[in-house]
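haha ok so turns out i had the wrong file open the whole time. this is the CORRECT one, sorry everyone. sequence first:
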Amino acid sequence: MKIICKKIPPSDSLLYRALRLESLKQNPEAFETSYQESINNPLIHFEKLIKENSQNKFVMGAYIENQLVGMCAFVDYNNHGVIDSGTIIQMYVTAKFRGFNISQSLLLSIKSEVIEIHNIHAILLEVKKFNSIAINTYLKSDFRIYKDSANEKDILMITQFN
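then structure:
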């Protein structure tokens, strides 16, 4: 099984939408946005960014035989006051393809893209404290726990590079 990770191109924005809606429906506890809120929105936020082909805000997709099976988004800002950093959000791999290190491949691909963005020297992400599988995936991908979030439900993780 060959996994190809690449920025989701504008031509695949509908594939992104379908996978994003699947993620919200199958794992609502892992995300801040709801399925109902998103399905009623004719254009989800990252669909716009994919269509704009933004360099600093993008969604990395994992493809197997031209099927989008995983995704992870990056934005070049954060809400935690960490200077020169961006944020990973929306990590999801469809259930059928979990256990094949797709999340780690997506994270590595994101890091490869982000290292080319000037003034970004760290990547942050938030993960729910109960999501031990995701936490372990991030730890294996050189993220470390930065701090517990104020809401007591999340952990803020960081990876840095020069």
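The first helix runs from residue 13 to 26.
again sry for the mixup
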